[in-house]
Fold this sequence. Notes:
The complex is a heterodimer of chains A (111) and B (116).
Chain A: E1 4-7, E2 10-14, E3 19-25, E4 33-38, E5 45-50, E6 56-59, E7 62-67, E8 72-77, E9 86-92, E10 100-101, E11 105-110
Chain B: E1 5-7, E2 10-13, E3 19-24, E4 31-38, E5 42-50, E6 53-56, E7 65-71, E8 74-79, E9 88-95, E10 106-107, E11 111-115
Parallel strand pairs in B: 2-11
Antiparallel strand pairs in B: 1-3, 3-8, 4-5, 4-9, 5-6, 7-8, 9-10, 9-11
Amino acid sequence: xxxxxxxxxxxxxxxxxxxxxxxxxxxxxxxxxxxxxxxxxxxxxxxxxxxxxxxxxxxxxxxxxxxxxxxxxxxxxxxxxxxxxxxxxxxxxxxxxxxxxxxxxxxxxxx
Amino acid sequence: xxxxxxxxxxxxxxxxxxxxxxxxxxxxxxxxxxxxxxxxxxxxxxxxxxxxxxxxxxxxxxxxxxxxxxxxxxxxxxxxxxxxxxxxxxxxxxxxxxxxxxxxxxxxxxxxxxxx
Lengths: 111, 116
């Protein structure tokens, strides 16, 4: 019940396309859902986060869509660029600072 | 620009040796996390401190791993004795815990450990 399932494992998108990464969870007590971006040789960095009281949050080209009833949330990257090529992790937490991370999605954006 | 620092950045050691990794959290942050990242297991939480007190170390192999915060500016992760299966990238992260829960965890650059 503590798991966060992330898909796909890898994704290849053309420049200018939309990248979509999905995550699903079981524990309805989760109340914070961040997405982290990690470049090779670097630590993960927070990209965008959402709480379950909203269904969507947008920051620039990055959007989180949240479906509370389906217990799913997704990251959309609009107008994907080669510089977006990285590994993306979703995560969830409940009332604390301790995250349960997804297994990661390796995104490659072709020029 | 405040950052989490970790030392060493790279470590190669032989099986059976002690390994100590250090982390300096961002000044003012009251929570520190240790993670291990491998291709097979992804990001695993090893230990979690709040105000220097260990809150959760359930992800850590107790027989060989230990984590401490001697003071607010230093967190350590020790492996003794090290084994080849410990080869991974170890990340430290820090943050400021709030009553609302959640919040940004700031990750350091990691220590890349290779145990031969």
